[in-house]
C-alpha cells in the first residue's frame, strides 16, 4: 500500500495551524464569509510554500463557485510527491461567527488516487469507532435497529448508547427513532467531521454518529477513522439533476451505492485538524503576551500514530 512521506505530515499540520490562526481573528464577529475566506487564504498560502505536487480532490467547491482551493486546483511547488488533498479550511463557519465550540481547520492527504472525489452534495452517514466485527451498522437499517445492534455488540442496554446527530429538521425521524429505543441523543449545531471522529474517542462518550451531512466532509472524516479504526457507511443524496451531473463529471454513476470507509479512502492517509474554537476534541487558538498558541491533532494510518501538538509562536 502506498504511503506518504513524513514531510507531508508537517505540511498538513502547518496548513491547519495557519488556517486556524487566520480564522480565529474572526471568532464572534458574526461574519461567516469573512471567517471562511481568512482560513482559505491562509491555507492556500501554506500549501503553495510546500514541496509537493498537490491536487485538491475535496475542496471549497467547483471552480466556478470557489476562486481558491477548488476541486481540481493544483497546489504546492510541483517538485515533490503527487498527493491528493481533502480539506475544509474552516469546518464550522457559523459556530466561528457565533464564537461557539468545535470549529476546526481540517486537512487530509493521501497518495495520488487515494481518496474518492466526492461531489459537493449531501451524504447519508453512519459511523462507529473501532473494536467491533464488520457489519454491525447498516444505512438500510433504522436508527433504532443500529443502536440495538451496537448495544448487543457492546453487551449493554440501548439506554447506555449515545448517538451524535446534527441538529437539523431533516433529522427529526432519526432522533425520534433513537429516543424510542432509549438511546441518548447528543445534538450538535455544526461540524460533522468532529462528530464522526468522536465515535473513536472513548472520552467523548459518543458511540455512534447518524445523519445527513456534506459528502466532502464524509471523506475527511473517513481519513481520520482510517487512522484509528472504525466503521463508516455513506450514500450520496441528490436533490436535483445538477447535483447528479456533478457526480457524473467525477465518474460516479451508481447513485444508490453504499460507500464503506475503504471505498472513500483507498490508501493510507494523513489527517490533521487544528482547533479554531475550543471543543471536545481540541483546544482553540489563544493569543497571550504577543504569542499565539494552537492545539492540533495529527494522525497517520500507515503507523496508527496519533499526535497532539501544542504550538506556540509570535503572534
Tell me how many strands there are: 14
Spans of at least 5 consecutive residues with low confidence: none
Q: Determine the mean pLDDT.
A: 93
Distance between the termini: 40 Å
Which structural class do you get from the secondary structure elements?
A: alpha+beta
The percent range for helix content is: 25-40%
Task: Give me the strand/helix succession.
Answer: HHEEEHEEHEHEHEHEHEHEEEE
CATH superfamily of the largest domain: Fructose-1,6-Bisphosphatase, subunit A, domain 1
Percentage of β-strand residues: 25-35%
**Rounded to an integer, what's the Rg over CA atoms?**
19 Å
Question: What are the key terms here?
Answer:
14 strands; 315 residues; 30% helix; eight-stranded mixed β-sheet; 2 domains; 9 helices; alpha+beta; Fructose-1,6-Bisphosphatase, Chain A, domain 1; D-Maltodextrin-Binding Protein, domain 2; globular; single chain
Please give a structural write-up.
- The chain is α+β, with helices and mostly antiparallel strands and 315 residues long.
- The chain has 2 domains: 7-115 and 269-314, Fructose-1,6-Bisphosphatase, subunit A, domain 1 (Fructose-1,6-Bisphosphatase, Chain A, domain 1, 2-Layer Sandwich); 122-264, D-Maltodextrin-Binding Protein, domain 2.
- The chain has helices spanning 7-24, 32-48, 93-97, 143-154, 172-180, 192-198, 215-228, 241-249, 261-264, and strands at 53-58, 74-75, 82-91, 104-111, 122-128, 162-166, 184-188, 208-214, 231-237, 259-260, 270-275, 286-288, 291-300, 305-314.
- Strands 1, 2, 3, 4, 11, 12, 13 and 14 form an 8-stranded mixed sheet that branches. A 6-stranded mixed sheet has the order 7-6-8-5-9-10, sandwiched between helices.
- Helix 1 (7-24) runs antiparallel to helix 2.
- The longest helix is centred in the N-terminal third of the chain and has 18 residues, at 7-24.
